[in-house]
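I'll show a record.
***
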Amino acid sequence: MDAVNHMSHDFTTQDPTGLYEGLDRVASPSLLFDADAIDRNIQRMIDIAGGRTDLLRPHMKTHKCAEILKLQIKAGIDRIKCATIAEAELAAMSGVADVLLSYPLVGPNAERFSALGKAYPDTTFATIADSPEGVLSLASFASPEHPVRLFLDLDCGMHRTGIGATEAAVDLVRQIQQNASLQFAGIHAYDGHIHDASIEARRTAFSAAMEVLGELLQRFAAEKIEVPLIVSGGSPTFALHAEKAMSADRPWQCSPGTTLLWDAGYGTHYPDLAFDPAAFLLTRVVSHPGETTICGDLGNKAVSAENPIENRVRFPGVPVVRFVGQSEEHLVIEISDREKYPVGTELLGIPYHVCPSVALYQRARILRSGEVTEEEWEIAARDRRLTV
């Protein structure tokens, strides 16, 4: 049985718990991955990119998992984006050919990044920079024999990291080009500030971000600076970036991440993207503390807690009235039909924000064809340090 496919991307009415057999064998709380849904999501990414795997550089921060990287490689996607050195190393260990670490590296992390290229010569590494200090830090651990590939990190509206489309950006690229230990690899433009639910609003915000990129490209053209590659976007604007990449007259790659596992937050707001939920949190009812409440063993150490309590986990099909409270190991929910959920009842929740929720677990139990298997995948890059 192809379980999650029967959910029809519905995050409000259909309870996935009954779609899987063998949940009684799994301790709670636990993280579970549906391998079939992950395969479908990879194929959906490829379809959105017009069948061109060369336009895809998925972000691995969502899953941090070697097995998912290998599924991507099998599908023809041999490049990724990541946020930590541990993620970059796991990608290299998994056979990924091309890794972009999209985080400014300074201090000891610049030295660790340099060590990656020496430890994994079969993988090409690159990172980003948005300041002269960052460029100098990376250059100090590089050499003409082992140069560091650097993308200019463009601030196209998020105002988190990056540099604007200004003369300072031109100066920074010149600094890179004039250092024999560095290589200018292209432009990195992340639009993580775009969260609009409607596709029309997303398209408007996307156009504004692309205007910033266009202004920078015009500056570079005037200075005869060649841009080898553009890497852009996240998940909410993925289809828009894919459309841009397919029609571009230069190398262009899209970098969605949440698309691989999806979650209740994106699933609720972006039904136009039509990815399947592939990560679930198993909890059990451990108590009936009141006439209308149940308590489950999904505390804030088992699901990402950065959002308000009502936006941490969703239980599709379960008549939740409100989330009453959450502590380290408990989640109390007011429910309209408590008697249907006796103590011991299993519930599958979809995390509202999947990326930090996955990072709370050492491994994920694997679901295939509507059944729990004995297979487990390690969330290996949740550790900040692997070897380097």
Q: What stands out?
A: The first strand starts at residue 30 and ends at 34. The two ends are 43 Å apart (CA to CA).
